[in-house]
Amino acid sequence: MSDAATVSAPAEFEPWKDPQAKPLIRFQNVTKRFGDFTAIDDLTIDIFEKEFFALLGPSGCGKTTMMRMLGGFETQTEGQILIDGQDVAPIPPNKRAVNMMFQSYALFPHLSVAENIAFGLKRDKLPKDQIAARVEEMLSLVQLNKFANRKPHQISGGQRQRVALARSLAKAPKLLLLDEPLGALDKKLRQDTQFELMDIQEQTGTTFVIVTHDQEEAMTVASRIAVMDHGKIIQVDTPAKIYEEPGSIYVADFIGDVNLIEGNVTNSGDDHATISWAEGQQDLIGIAHDEIPAGTSATLAIRPEKVNISTEKPADMTNIVHGKVLDIAYLGNMSTYVIETPTGQHIKAQAANTRRIRRRAITWEQEVWLSFTDTAGVVLTS
Amino acid sequence: MRRLSWFNTVSLTLGFAFLYIPMLILIVYSFNGGKLVTVWSGFSTKWYGELFRNEAFLDAAWVTLKVAVMSSTIATVLGTMAAYVMVRAGRFHGRTLFSGMIYAPLVMPEVITGLSLLLLFIAIGLDRGVLTIVLAHTTFSMCYVSVVVSSRLVTFDQSLEEAALDLGCTGFEAFRLVTLPIIAPAVISGWLLAFTLSLDDLVIASFTSGPSSTTLPIKIFSAVRLGVSPEINALSTIMIGLVAIGVIGASLTSKRAIAKRAKDEQEAIQ
Q1: Domain B48-269 -> CATH class
Q2: How far is B67 from chain A (nearest CA, A)?
């Protein structure tokens, strides 16, 4: 997962770190209420040109509302939304340089694939030959030239998804909004399409804002991810940062698998914090960028794949936990071990299955040692 | 095909006999050669010929057709608009009242509708004629159209319209270019239904028609009071034919639309 993330976020493209950079989209203290329900709660964020920005969160967290406000289908109750420095509140959807790809694709069933793609261009009253050329270009982009004259119900789900993408890109929008674009596809097709989506984003140089509840999808495609909950953005960061250094327990728990070990801070400083967490177990050290006062209750979040498992006590590791194997889940390429400590805490460790199953050294009920480095986990207070 | 049990066969036969024997007799006697309605005296189509030479009947038929086309067209436009607002506008103040009031004429006794329209036309000084029948028929057939169209709109994916707006349509263009073509089968079957309703209405038409604008059902009704002639049988047979074509057409269009939608949806799953 983290491999894919580093690929999609090349080191040189980081406009959010440049204080001079002008954002393409700016949400300024935006609040949206539907009756008594607050969908978006005082939200402020900048999104930059050419970003592939993912809004990630459980259903009902407000991510779709944010997208619909960008598309012009909802108006904020308070605050301002700027696109290219311009307040977009009074601009109706048909006048915005923003296009949207709908979750249901919303292809017009009475029009052919080519007519669907040409639909937006015709509204702009472009000359016929220009429309034809642009449609051809879009069909090539999504490799659907052969299907130009088919109706939407005569093509497969994956092809429909590509028609929807081509149609929303045909007008060369400044900003493309994608609402769960791959939600209707099966897993294998989804993975292929993710890479296709990234290629197309790079080729066209369009800013993409994608809404998804699938964290793997967000990790794969996005340059930055905003993790949302209850109408607020909990954390905005690159996929790698979100995964490696979550800012809160919520984010750590939402993205991927994680061990949460609760304890009390005994010592903090120099980008690290130490917590004592159980009788008879050695204290654990993790990353903590801010100093945490001693005695504060805190949680160490550590990913299972960063935890080593061994049958003998390792000599040179900072963090060591002793326990018994409770469960083993064989996943093919790797196995997940659930270890129970003498105090009843469960900790997961993952190991790649480089050997055949028969020759594995670790089995149920066995006494084992878990170990990890002092930069593997993060100490979180909220 | 499953064979029907004797009980089902009997009930089916009885049911259909009850419904259709009267009409069948009427159709058979329209081809009677003699002048007496109840005595069969050989096959003949002469009463059809007679009918087409009868100016009064032809005038009435022409009035009926004009009224039916105009009223069903206006009813379709108004009914579609009403259905669109009810399904799309979401919650607005008085929505329940509004939708209830659209459906109320469906259950209102025709005599009352007819009488109240008559009073209205007298009050505003509108002379009774083709126009008043058209208005009256529009009033009661509009709610049928809006029922048919709104049941289609409920299952209409709203993001289709949003997509049209997103691609640069104004609200009206989105309706004309996307919504209307997709709901067209429902609109057409609404029109056919309204047309048929107008064609065979007697009660409301008799309240709202003037001396110069007698519709066919009124003509038949008054003619029958003077005695049934084979000519009336011939005329009624033609009307049964027309109404049957209208109803079958309406149900076929909506059936085909449903079948097509089901097919599309099934392919979408694959």
Answers
A1: mainly alpha
A2: 33
